[in-house]
């Protein structure tokens, strides 16, 4: 594996797949190697070698490669002509990028070979994330349509679509993926805490995207100064107000989780809703409503404690979800949200947002230009040396 790692690190950013293919052919006797990346809408897997050719895309929810992506487990096709196609998830710290398909002669298709190839897939994923700084190849391979300029700005602002650590797992998704403008999510963690932000800038198109960019970067700037979420909100509020003087503002939900104790604080400054699944129960977590960022000059924000325990699942949804209307004008509403949370209970956090948004699309029955955002967080907490769980928040 060390040779694989050295080869990938030495490769040009755009040549990672060719470099991996050459090494896999040499070491494992592979007869075919292909990297497929998930598109922005999480509907298809597209081969990097044919970036931009959507005719070669494979359905994410109805293909062997898609099943490997969904299960996050290596899968293999039935032997054919003495060859076996192995599909290996390409995932980095919970972020699901795609699938590496490797075709091996049947006599070389062993559990040991598959385990080593799974490690190669993980190495390749890490290098892709680094290489994206210097090439557009992998970004192009994720597109089945052209992104609007507003959507381009929003996707570049995101931290990813998933993240996993021992204390938590996060998954999030935006729709319409190729034309989103105002909704956004952000997160950051260190050895002591996790901070989440879900934002929704008002207006449409570029104006909404620019507004959200300003708010998210103001929140990041404050967060990186090491201050709490109430002061983060206050400083971002000042930045947005200084630019727009109350004419435009940003709805925001900020949360901070103490990784050691599970103590959770929230600032509700707008429309994103927080829901909690605990055991078989699903309920909305009602927070003290505070002013959106930038609505008035020098607003004062107060954090409040949220009851979070190990095993809880949290969902944050934007107004584009719970206000979405059916063809008959019926809002998606709380009952549909509860049903969606219950029906996705067995899915991992990274797969929940896409499943909820598919149910939402079925409810709408038609395409929409309204933004919709779902973020899912599974809270595990930490286990102390005695084996008991840490992570219960205050009631």
List keywords for this structure.
single chain, 395 residues, alpha+beta, 6-stranded antiparallel β-sheet, 11 helices, 28% strand
Helix content: 25-40%
Uncertain stretches: 391-395
Sum up the overall morphology in one term.
globular
Strand arrangement, major sheet: 3-2-1-6-5-4
Rg (C-alpha, Å): 22 Å
The helix/strand order is HHEEEHEEEHHHEEEEHHEEEEEEHHHEEE
Question: Which percent band covers the strand fraction?
Answer: 25-35%
User: Between the first and last Cα atoms, what is the distance in angstroms?
Assistant: 49 Å
Given helix and strand content, the structural type is alpha+beta
Number of helices: 11
For the biggest sheet, the summary is: 6 strands, antiparallel
- For the secondary structure, the number of strands is 19
The average pLDDT is: 93
Structure characterization notes:
- With 395 residues, the protein is an alpha+beta fold.
- The chain has eleven helices and 19 strands.
- Strand 4 and strand 5 form a beta hairpin.
- The longest helix is centred in the N-terminal third of the chain and has 21 residues.
- It is globular, with a radius of gyration of 22 Å.
- The C terminus is likely disordered.
